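Tip: read the tokens left to right.
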């Protein structure tokens, strides 16, 4: 067998030793043919006697050159496997698979496992199929959304639901590798059996085993679950977690056999030290989970590798946890390392410190090259005909990638000022209210209570320095409107509204000015979904999300610019959080601690019990 091309003298990553050594790598078709200290092009051929180098070799001056593989000098470059991201959501980048593929490949990510539970919460299995039908050069495998809605239709109203029949249908597709993040702890551990009294999530886990056996992984979502509860969660068959970790949770979960998928917010120095000092690399993968559009421009899984290294993880170990361990977790045995017979998905780096891809190969073909990366551009045989096509590339087809009704999914009235007033049900001068207190880092809230004045039958929340959160059911099912009070959001007068609102994606309005709240909500309805920030009575920044209210079909660069302006207004209004967009969007996520808002009202996340907004009248 003759290789299509050979990369010579690169520093090749040796997976099982987790180190680099100078090697030649030969590629044939979409697979790696050979990895060796020196690859000769033909039997008996001496070093230097290959196409493009042989001028006066054997046969004398002017002897005809033999046809042979292209040879690329990889001297001074580091060659690593393509990155494998096994827990992520394309919709968190507010874009669609084709566009996401371009930026992921640029970042050196060649395989992802996408949990499309956001589009499923709006359109159900039809939404998942719409994603799966898009052909991309990036390998996109899928998780079955296990929690659509995240809790139940009795506690929140989603646009659609995923049940046992949808699970059976999706399991028929070989691209489905796992049951996505199982969230609802109470439903997981409820006493049941096989006599019809199982909860739906218990049925889903059982069906995965019956239909596909150990081939299907069961992924979990279990923040702050510990002790006996954690044991029961794992006993139910769920053996992975991607939520925010601490050093203690890393050790406890690892000791109990749980596989850990570490995203950016888990990569603190303390967590990384716990992983490194106890040698837990076999039990850890690096993942992105949620990547905002403007953050995706800065990198994908490569960015997480940089964060891990900055927090103290040796780069060789970080590469291992971004390539081999995630591939092994998902039974993707044909990738994740550089070896004969493996997929020719690999990345060339100029240096390990910056860890920015200079060139990316997918299925043996060069799909991305950074300007000045070297001589690869002249090697025509390295390029594939299926290189990524941008939606904004000259000549790219201008097609609608989704059914027409995906662009008309916001079925909710335009708000009036009266929708943002809290009226009391009995005579009083004060009320004790339950409040969602935001953190400056992450998405968790804290339940606190505050005493507020009442005048003319209305709660005086504005003068108390609080923001009002109002959630409008927008799928056209019941017209619910629910209220919550928020501490730690906007400090200056203004508001924002969005339909990108984990996970049920109802329309959330948050602000401390009724005039601005009306303006923001009305504009989001007009846009058929998106983010809008308002101040001084008018919208001042917006990002359109017309597909299901959560996805933009324009180029990502344009969306990122628009979202950047929304972020800027958030900062101007005093919203302090490491990711204010995500912080706001998860005010209505009823599986993220501790007190959240659904269209049915406030919900205690741990107990899954409704909490009154007004605790007591005084």
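Filled-in amino acids:
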């Amino acid at each position: 067998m003759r290789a299509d091309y050979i990369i010579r003298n690169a520093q090749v990553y040796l997976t099982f030793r987790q180190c680099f050594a100078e090697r030649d790598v030969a590629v044939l078709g979409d697979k790696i043919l050979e990895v060796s200290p020196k690859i000769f092009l033909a039997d008996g051929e001496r070093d230097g006697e290959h196409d493009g180098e042989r001028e006066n070799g054997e046969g004398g001056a002017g002897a005809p050159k033999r046809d042979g593989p292209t040879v690329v000098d990889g001297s001074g470059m580091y060659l690593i496997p393509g990155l494998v991201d096994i827990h992520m959501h394309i919709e968190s980048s507010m874009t669609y698979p084709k566009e996401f593929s371009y930026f992921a490949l640029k970042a050196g990510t060649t395989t992802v496992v996408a949990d499309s539970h956001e589009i499923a919460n709006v359109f159900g299995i039809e939404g998942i199929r719409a994603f799966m039908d898009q052909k991309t050069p990036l390998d996109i495998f899928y998780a079955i959304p296990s929690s659509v809605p995240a809790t139940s239709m009795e506690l929140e109203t989603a646009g659609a639901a995923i049940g046992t029949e949808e699970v059976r249908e999706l399991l028929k597709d070989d691209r489905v590798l796992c049951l996505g993040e199982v969230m609802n702890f109470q439903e997981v551990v409820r006493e049941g059996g096989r006599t019809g009294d199982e909860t739906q999530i218990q049925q889903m886990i059982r069906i995965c085993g019956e239909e596909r056996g150990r081939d299907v992984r069961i992924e979990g979502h279990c923040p702050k679950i510990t002790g006996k509860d954690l044991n029961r969660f794992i006993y139910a068959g769920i053996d992975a977690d991607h939520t925010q970790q601490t050093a203690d949770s890393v050790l406890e979960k690892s000791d109990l056999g749980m596989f850990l998928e570490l995203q950016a917010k888990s990569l603190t120095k303390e967590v990384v030290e716990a992983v490194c000092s106890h040698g837990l690399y076999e039990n850890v993968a690096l993942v992105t989970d949620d990547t905002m559009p403007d953050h995706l421009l800065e990198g994908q899984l490569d960015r997480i590798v940089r964060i891990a290294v900055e927090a103290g993880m040796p780069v060789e170990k970080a590469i291992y946890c971004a390539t081999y361990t995630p591939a092994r977790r998902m039974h993707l045995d044909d990738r994740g390392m550089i070896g004969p017979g493996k997929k020719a998905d690999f990345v060339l780096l100029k240096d390990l410190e910056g860890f920015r891809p200079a060139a990316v190969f997918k299925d043996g073909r060069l799909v991305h090259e950074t300007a000045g990366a070297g001589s690869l551009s002249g090697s025509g045989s390295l390029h594939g005909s299926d290189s990524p096509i941008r939606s904004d590339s000259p000549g790219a087809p201008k097609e609608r990638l989704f059914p027409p009704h995906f662009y008309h999914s916001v079925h909710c009235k335009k708000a009036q000022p009266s929708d943002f007033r809290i009226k009391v049900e009995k005579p009083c001068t004060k009320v004790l209210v339950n409040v969602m207190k935001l953190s400056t880092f992450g998405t968790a809230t804290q339940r606190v209570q505050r005493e507020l004045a009442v005048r003319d039958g209305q709660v005086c929340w504005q003068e108390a320095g609080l923001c009002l959160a109002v959630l409008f059911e927008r799928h056209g099912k019941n017209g619910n409107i629910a209220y919550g009070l928020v501490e730690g959001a906007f400090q200056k007068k203004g508001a924002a509204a969005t339909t990108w609102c984990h996970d049920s994606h109802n329309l959330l309005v948050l602000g401390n000015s009724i005039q601005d709240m009306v303006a923001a909500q009305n504009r989001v309805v007009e846009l058929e979904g998106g983010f809008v920030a308002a101040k001084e009575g008018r919208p001042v920044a917006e990002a359109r999300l017309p597909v299901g209210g959560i996805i933009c079909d324009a180029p990502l660069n344009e969306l990122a610019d628009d979202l950047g302006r929304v972020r800027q207004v958030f900062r101007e209004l005093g919203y302090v959080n490491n990711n204010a967009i995500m912080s706001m969007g998860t005010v209505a996520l009823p599986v993220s601690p501790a007190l959240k808002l659904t269209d049915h009202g406030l919900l205690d996340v741990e107990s899954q019990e409704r909490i009154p907004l007004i605790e007591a009248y005084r």
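The first helix runs from residue 97 to 106. The first strand starts at residue 5 and ends at 14.
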